[in-house]
Design goal:
Layout lengths: L4 E7 L4 E7 L5 E6 L8 H19 L6 E7 L5 H10 L6 E6 H9 L5 E6 L3 E6 L5 E5 L11 H19 L5 H10 L3 H10 L2 H5 L2 H6 L5 H22 L6 E4 L3 H5 L4 H4 L9 H12 L7
Parallel strand pairs: 1-4, 4-5, 6-9
Antiparallel strand pairs: 1-2, 2-3, 6-7, 7-8
EC number: 2.7.1.8
GO molecular function, one term: glucosamine kinase activity
InterPro entries: ATPase_BadF, ATPase_NBD, Euk-type_GlcNAc_Kinase
Length: about 290
């Protein structure tokens, strides 16, 4: 059976987006599903990926044997988890490749051409591809030890501020801490219960509101200043000594870019695509389809 479709999937710590394209007619289908982070919650990742793919196959009426698929997912740096996913996935595709969401972001950002990319979503990662097509990943170590500049770590910093105020005053005082307390609890007991169950996506949910407080709360500004410093360090490491164009991607790219110093803002060019576009590009490169009428 010839390959008639490509499927690209972008899976992160908060949500999954997948797109199916008919190579002959260019008709597209796109769906959303739950979070996909192989390292943070493998079972949820498998469920989200399966859900997204099954939705697309059902909507299009195609067979997996007609599909070339590339999944760009958080946590794919762990090859044992990638192998487990390929074994456990209850679907069979003509071609399937599982790569990191950093790689799909890299290929989407500049339509497959040399570029440096810093992706700021629930987590964070940098990656570059030079003129020789050599790829290098920076960061991407996960929430426990890394992900500086991502939404989860920004939320983590805000929670730390709340805990500091609880230690000093017994209650939340700043506007930021009052907001965080409204989301996770006002007492030591309720906060500890939240922390015991919190995943990176839960910390990341706190991030968007922090930006809106920067002009009215000095503590929020302190947190955002630390956040920006982390991003600028990641940009510096990602670009290295190269003169590659730089693209910021991800849900926190736009609000964070406005806070960067002028030196770093001047390095950034508009993106030509996103991680999902990159996954689709790689899926097309993966196959040499024979398109029949």
């Amino acid at each position: 059976m010839s390959i008639q479709y490509i499927l690209g999937l972008d899976g992160g710590g908060t949500k999954t987006v997948a797109r199916l394209v008919n190579l002959r007619t260019s008709m597209q289908w796109q769906v959303n599903a739950g979070a996909t982070s192989l390292s943070n919650d493998y079972s949820l990742a498998l469920s989200s990926i399966t859900d997204a793919c099954e939705q697309l196959l059902a909507q299009s009426g195609c067979n997996g044997e007609q599909v070339s698929a590339v999944f760009g997912v958080a946590g794919a740096g762990d090859k044992s988890l990638v192998a487990k996913l390929q074994r456990d996935l209850p679907l069979h595709f003509a071609q399937l490749k599982v790569v990191s969401d950093a790689k799909t972001s890299l290929y989407g950002a500049n339509a497959g051409q040399p570029v440096a990319v810093v992706a700021l979503g629930t987590g964070s990662v940098g990656m570059r591809m030079d003129e020789n097509r050599t790829e290098k990943m920076i960061g991407g170590w996960g929430f426990c030890i890394g992900d500086e500049g991502g939404g989860a770590k920004l939320g983590y910093l805000a929670v730390q501020k709340l805990l500091l105020e609880m230690d000093l005053n017994g209650v939340a005082k700043s506007t930021l801490s009052l907001y965080v307390a409204s989301q996770i609890g006002y007492s030591r007991h309720s906060i500890l219960q939240w922390l015991a169950l919190a995943k990176p996506a839960d910390f990341a949910k706190l991030a968007p509101h922090i930006f809106s407080l920067k002009d009215e709360c000095v503590v929020a500004l302190e947190v955002l200043t630390a956040h920006v410093t982390m991003i600028e360090k990641l940009i510096k490491r990602t670009c290295g000594s190269s003169n590659l164009p730089l693209v910021l991607l991800g849900g926190l790219a736009e609000p964070s870019q406005a806070l960067l110093s002028e030196t770093y803002r001047n390095l950034i060019m508009p993106s030509k695509g996103n991680s999902l576009d990159g996954a689709c590009l790689l899926a097309k490169q993966l196959c040499t389809p024979v398109i029949t009428n």
